[in-house]
Amino acid sequence: MATGLIATAPVIILVEPQLGENIGAAARAMLNCGLTRMRIVRPRDGWPNARAVAAASGADQVIENAQIFDSTSAAIADLNFVLATTARQRDMVKTILTPETAAEELHARAAAGQGVGILFGPERTGLMNDDIPLADALVTIPVNPAFSSINLAQSVLLIGYCWWRLTVKVEDRRLDVGGNRPATKVELENLFARLEIALEEGGFYTTEQQRPTMVRNMRNLLQRAQMTEQEVRTFHGVIVALNGTAGKSKEKRAKEKRRT
Length: 260
Hints:
Blueprint: H1 3-8, E1 11-15, H2 20-32, E2 38-41, H3 50-56, H4 60-64, E3 67-69, H5 72-75, E4 81-85, E5 96-97, H6 99-111, E6 116-120, E7 137-139, H7 152-165, H8 185-201, H9 211-224, H10 229-259
Parallel strand pairs: 1-2, 1-6, 2-3, 4-6, 4-7, 5-7
Helix pairs in contact: 2-3, 2-7, 6-7, 8-10
């Protein structure tokens, strides 16, 4: 496989995989499709895993170079565009892509110099609600609705194959971001964290019960904006300015109250 394809191929991120055999089978499916970069978030049975090596059936380079992370946020921190695989309807507004459309989008963004990745959830439950807002869009595999159960390796193979099919000839598409690079996930995470602190200090969260849903919806809204690095910095400035305005308003009200 050409070095250029390895460099632009999407990163495969397995979130809390349950069995070493499933990790190995996913690695085998990856290499079938020219994908070599695997990241694993909190593998249930620990790492390294001898059963993963055995199930990989020769896809040793994928297993040996797999990176382990403590959180999904850390695993995608250096990426610009992330897809999440899910077969379930979620209470969120998200773009939903087929594997074919997802492959086209991944190629286009990689050609534009962006780091891209695909999230796969645990075999039993799929991705959790808190992981979904981290992604820019969802990928759903349209299989038989009467029997839609597919395992982890099958999911990796189906989506990976759609990406591989386009490696022979890919349309030269460039995403125009006005000379600014898209924000990385860690830059977005820092912005989200700062915004949440500002909202808490401003009394935005009316009850603790509502807070998790409101936080997820806010993050999901900003994620859909696909912000550039410059836009993230601008948004930081907006938060600082609003905090300053709010502080001055409080001081003014306090002075007026003292005078009366």
